[in-house]
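Researcher: Here's the sequence for the chain we discussed earlier.
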Amino acid sequence: MSRAEPRPSRRAFIGATGAVAATGLTAGCESPAQPSRPPSPASTARVSPTGRHQAGITLPQPAQPNLLAVVADLGDAVAVGPLLAELGKAIDTLTAGTDPRLLGLPPGDLTVTIGVGPRLVRMADPSLPGAADLPRFSRERIASQARGGDLLIQICAGDALLLPVVTAALLAQAGDRLRVRWRQSGRRGANIPVDQGLSAPRNPLGFIDGIVGPHTTAEEQRHLWLAGPAPVAGGTLAVLRRMELDLPRFAALSVADQEAVFGRRRSTGVPLSGGTIASDPNLGAKTPDGRYLIPADAHLRRAHPNVVGVGLMLRRSYSTDEPTPGLLFISFQNDLRTFTNTLAHMDGSDALLRFTTTTAGATFLILPGFDQRHPLGARLFR
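Model: Thanks. This is the structure I predict for it:
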């Protein structure tokens, strides 16, 4: 978790909530790479929407405390390229504070991130990353309306008041070309110091969330950003999952039993095998009577990337109140198997999954960045 390039074993595990990453219980609107400070509801620092990558993934840092995600479908006759270009222009004026649809509200650290679903990717080129649908897993109760989708609009901001206003502006821009499937707002708590220059929040189950991920530039290039082909280079793949949490049943456990579920200490985030919060978990460590210090079904063990054989995912999640208490989770990775193989390895054997039910799920290709010369989505949808 330091900024130096880590040992393979150190970055090769998803951490105390990596399984939550696969199920929906992890990190913030971007890599938690700044010292802890309370979230500001009215930050004045503008985040530029243009560049090689879209904002709202690794920028800004630290994460904004509020998110609203909208999942929608496009009509069959809609011209995808022009719609995306219009949305890109609207994002530019909204984040600049020059759009009258902001109703005078200062945009502050507002970011809007756009992704396209597998159906649209297959229309452009079925061989591209992002063309595969998300498979089904156990512990899902997903209605057809809440599975898949053509478009993801992710809005993050320090000021929660901006979320419905910006959403209304973007949906008005799209008009009847979009049909909303579902939308979900969420929030995250203050960051807690984890390691040098890194911090992470707690999740509603009380555990520090999102300790490990691709935090350095080298890790982001290896695990987060798509390197090619050209139409998707600079983008990434997102998995979106809405989770219900059985908070009363988890709260009824003793602290020791809760820690056995995660494989970490609740108060400090330290692995049950010892060390510091940033230490590699020693999965082979045992008690004198031969029991694993990190139980066989602990979330940390079941989500260990060295065991699963996958890379790192940039995980983020926001707690939700409606329709039921839970989490809205998004992971970013440059290989969908990073997520799917991890969840498949956890399925049926991770103690944390006993307290979760997935009620919505989809995957999206987060489009590469854009600017005035290269409109949003232009490289993929000409």
